[in-house]
Structure formats: structure tokens, C-alpha cells
Amino acid sequence: MKKQRGLTNYLLRRFLRFDREQPFIFLSAMLAFLGIMLGVMVLIIAMALMNGFDNEFKKKLTIMNYPLTIVPRFYGSVNSELLMRLEQEFPQLKFSPYVAASVIARSGSQLEGGYLFGVDFKAEREVNPVVAKGLETLPEGNFKVLVGEALLEAFALGEGDRLMYIFTQIEPGGLAVTPKLKRFVIAGSFDSGLSAYDKAYSYTDLHSLQTIMHLPDNVYDGIHIMTDDPQKVIEEVRSVLPEGVRIKGWWEDNVNFFAALELEKRSLFIVLMLIILIAAVNIISSLLMTVMNRRSEIALLISLGASPAQIKKLFLKLGVVIGIGGIATGAILGLSGVWVLQTFDIITLPKHVYPTARLALDLSWQDFVSILGGAFAIVVLSSWYPAKKASEVDVLTVLRNE
């Protein structure tokens, strides 16, 4: 057994050496090695980028859309009594009641649609870290408003300026109906990292907006909930809610968006895996050329007692060695590339377009194992056919002719 293993290793080293008489065989094997190496490296970095940006988008959407939200059904009501009951039953959670209104912000001739939220400043600071700093200095009452920095830049306004909000809810006046108009004093700003949210969301005192909307002090449009494990907590809270209200998670409002991201990630994985598949074609051609060039040696080995299974194993091992070498080198280079991009600010991104100004990378172990497993499977399948052809060499014909 040891002699057979030593012979196999000797032949492997011999077949992998550069042959001056047949340089194209070695060149084809080298191209296969380089192709698999580059494919694995690019796939690792691409998957890390996709995961990183997915996580960044999830963080931003979680912050601005809140992990969980309780809203009324068409016949229900969210009020202070429900809020007190939830705070008693779930003291580990943080709650923030709110009133929301669809508005159009106007400054001169410029208009920007969005939402104005009336919130309890103390409670909102606990559930929304993005606006927490601005709410600390925002005085309650007197129709003060906290707006996004993107809106301030678009309107060329600053703190202390007045900003008019046109409410989409209309009210009768004389012989016609007119929209509600109210000027607010800009008392602070926030920056979420996403300009779409900064332009669309504004925050004011809960009582101020309730007064404008003619709502009782104890009635809300909903309650935001902050938790680190929303998918577990949602079922616990749902079990104690009355029939007139319902609870929803932030992911339920963004199902299509994240489904598109997941589809894009899978498509990218398949496309980049084709690079490895193309490189594996070089393994097939290299092994087939080796088989054609070494037919006399193969026939001689079989005539000396080597079985077809051993010949098949030899060439299968030859292809696997080339492939594993490329996979291992590509994995090392890919992980090194991820580390370099995470550590050094080599590439910067426009902050107003992307959720982060630097590349976000996060390589999950599932993706890493999938890449290595998929590449190895392609290498084995590519090596099988040439190995099979090597084991089917006609000994008598080859020895008679060569």
C-alpha cells in the first residue's frame, strides 16, 4: 500500500513538472490554477461586500423605521391605557407613542413631501438614537421642529429659521375647504446617513401635533418599540394585544426590498461561480492533453499490474491538486483583500448616496463554506471525465503502436 502511494505521489510530481517538449500542458494547468484562484478571491470579496451593504441598510432601516410598531386596525385605537399596560408587562422594552401627519414642507417656492411626527421627547430618545442628540436640546411645546440635515441643505435654512408645513388633511373654512398651514421654528437637526429619510422625516412635540390635528391627549397613531430581538419579541407582544390593534416588524414594510437584495446576491454568486467553472474547463483540457501525451506510460503501468481504478485515482488526484491549490490560494488572497479593505480607507463612497462613507464588508461563514464547497465540487467533476478516459486506455493498441 505504501509503495502504491509512493508511486502515485511520484507520478503526480512528474506530471505537474514543466515539460519542455509539451509546454502547453503545463500552461493549461497554470491557467486553470490562476482562474480558480481569481474566481474564489473575487467571489469572497463580492459576497463580503454584498453582506456588508445588506447589514448597513438593515441598520439604517431599523433605526428610522423602528424594530416594532403597534398600530390600530380600522376599528381599534392606540391610547395611553394600552401604553401603560404594555410598560407594566414588558419592563425590559422601550416604548415611544407618536402621532404622524403627512405634510409638505415649504420654503419659498421649494416644496418637499414627507411626514411630521409628534413624539414624547424623553421616550423617543430611548428608541431612536439618530434623533436622540437633537431631541435633548429641543425645547418642548411652542411648535419647535427637528429636521434632517438634507432638508436644511436643500432649503438653505439653519437653526432659528421658520419652516412652513402644509398638512394634507383639509378642514372647512367659509365656502371652501383649505389645507392646514403651520409655521414651525427649526430648533435642531439630525443625520441618519440616508438623505431620503432626512428629507422626509421631521419631529416635533407630541402635544403640539395633537393640538394641530385636534386629537385627544391620550390617543396616538401608534407606539414604537425598541428591542434587540424584534422577531422573538413580536410574538410575545402580539399575544397580549387587544383585537383592535396589531403589531408589525420593520422587515414587513421592506419585504420586497430585501427580497431583491437576496436575489441580487444569489445572482452574483452564480455569475461569479461561472468564472470558476470556466477555469475548470482548463483542468479538463490539461488533463486530457496529459492523458494523450502519457498514453504509453499509462499502458506500461497497467501492463505492470496497475489497475484501471488506480490510474483513474491518479488523474483524479492530479486535477484535484491543481484545483485545491487554486482554491486555497484564492481563499487566502480573498480574506486578505477583505481585511485590507476593512482596515484601510482605500475606497470612499458618497455619504449622501450610500448608507456608509466607507466600504462595508461582512463575510459570513455560510457564504465562505458555500464558496469553497462549490469550487471543490466543480474541480472534482471537471477531473472525473479525464480520469475516466485515462483508465480506459487500450493497453495492447498503445503498446503495439507506440
Automatic annotation (TrEMBL):
Natural source organism: Sulfurimonas diazotrophicus
Principal cellular location given in the protein's record: membrane
Protein localization: Cell membrane
Topology with respect to the bilayer: Multi-pass membrane protein
Entry superkingdom: Bacteria
Family indicated by similarity: Belongs to the ABC-4 integral membrane protein family. LolC/E subfamily.
Spans through the membrane: 24-50, 268-293, 314-341, 368-387
Domain MacB-like periplasmic core: 30-232
Protein name per UniProt: ABC transporter permease
